[in-house]
Specification:
about 425 residues; alpha/beta; 9-stranded mixed sheet; 17 helices; about 15% strand
Length: about 425
């Protein structure tokens, strides 16, 4: 027997013999090499989704299988794979099967492109794409009936959860109401002129999401890790950046920073300050990380700092970057927030509040974004004003409302908060 057949047979033997094993199963059907094994596994997952309350899944599974698949599944419990079952830990078999599959993928991709390209980065990207593909469910062709049922289930689930958000909470009530949270697969643009607070707004979004127990990856293409460390310390400790940078911190300030470390050390916000990346290279890096651990939100700061190669002009480069990031959001099924700089033509107008049309001068950004938020601070132009208010205009939203909300902009503490 083939090695993969032995592993898959022993794995299914465990699942059919134990409800506990079924509950712990985490493979995707595409990770099975044997078509028969895949069909049996799909039936097990279907029954698990339906909430079948049986200690042995063998009987309900066999009741619903027919023909050749039924006979193949019957051999599993007739002892064909019994001698290969060495543990009831499904993780053992899943690990062995995945390792075997990954070796097969590497060999196949190298063989496919042998003699066609010497670009190791390209081949590595193809290997990672293939690995991600087998870890995902096969695409389902949706019927009208299926889509209506899905919409009903989602609506029902939302009602039962008390009207929770379908996406990740931004931490801002009115923004969540308009956006319905940061939704999986969406490419979200945060646009503004320089010094309006794009980076600070994105950082606060990331921290707010991380505080909910999610994994956030921040790609800082412009800022250094040193500057970001100071900003995060100010935000979480309540000690102003001017004090942290001046060397005049007191024992009280140190205590506040230490308390912030103790209280927030477990936040899953990871920062990469590698500069000079292309969008293709960035997507490659994020795909590789997604193989090792889940990513719930990716933030890119900012779009114009991506360095696209072999493009005729800047507009084509921005368009390519947006296409690649949009594809990555759909592929990984995560929201991607990307900061974007609006061109300087806004400064020549009497009213400096940018409009959606201002993005059309910056390539294909507006067309490819699912959501566009435009930031504006009147105090930047009129320093004599009192409170520093950040206006967040949802100028485009494919799946929800547009509108405006205002937040309190606290630059010394690097905080953007709701106005109380």
């Amino acid at each position: 027997m083939e090695q993969t057949e032995i592993i898959e047979g022993a794995y299914l033997h465990c699942l059919l013999s134990s409800k506990k094993a079924v509950m712990a199963a985490s493979l995707e059907p595409l990770e099975f090499n044997c078509v028969m094994a895949r069909r049996v596994y799909e039936k097990i997952l279907e029954l698990r989704t339906r909430g079948i309350d049986e200690e042995l899944y063998f009987f309900p599974v066999m009741t619903e299988l027919k023909g050749e698949v039924f006979h193949w599944a019957n051999e599993i419990t007739d002892g064909k794979y019994q001698e290969f079952v060495c543990t009831d830990d499904v993780g053992y078999y899943e690990s062995k099967l995945r390792n075997y599959n990954y070796r097969e993928i590497v060999d196949r991709v190298i063989s496919q492109y042998s003699g066609k390209t010497d670009d190791a980065s390209f081949i590595k990207g193809k290997i990672e794409e293939e690995m991600l593909r087998v870890k995902r469910k096969a695409p389902d062709l949706a019927t009208v009936k299926g889509m209506l049922e899905r919409a009903f289930r989602e609506c029902e689930a939302m009602s039962e959860s008390g009207g929770g958000l379908p996406g990740l909470s931004t931490g801002y009530t009115e923004l969540d109401r308009m956006l319905l949270g940061l939704r999986a697969g969406d490419l979200i643009v945060v646009a503004a002129r320089p010094s309006m607070g794009k980076s600070m707004f994105c950082l606060n979004l990331g921290l707010n999401v991380a505080k909910k127990g999610k994994v956030v990856r921040l790609q800082a293409l412009e800022e250094t890790l040193r500057n970001l460390s100071t900003r995060i310390a100010a935000n979480l400790s309540g000690v102003a950046t001017t004090i942290l940078n001046s060397g005049k911190a007191t024992s009280t300030h140190y205590s506040s920073v230490i308390e912030a470390i103790n209280d927030n050390g477990g936040l899953n916000l990871v920062v990469d300050d590698t500069h000079g990346l292309s969008s293709g290279k960035l997507c490659e890096v994020v795909r590789q990380e997604a193989l090792a651990r889940p990513i719930d939100l990716l933030i890119v700061d900012h779009l114009q700092e991506l360095v696209e190669e072999n493009v005729q002009n800047r507009h084509l480069g921005l368009s390519r970057a947006m296409t690649n990031l949009r594809g990555l959001a759909k592929e990984l099924k995560i929201p991607i927030v990307i900061a974007c700089q609006i061109n300087r033509a806004v400064e020549a107008r009497k009213v400096q509040m940018p409009f959606l049309a201002d993005l059309k001068e910056s390539g294909d950004i507006e067309a490819k974004a699912d959501i566009v938020m435009i930031l504006y601070r009147e105090k930047y132009y009129s320093p004599e004003m009192g409170a520093d208010i950040l206006d967040v205009k949802v100028a485009k939203n494919r799946n929800g409302e547009t509108g405006m909300t205002s937040l309190l902009f606290d630059a010394p503490l690097m905080r953007i908060e709701e106005i109380k």
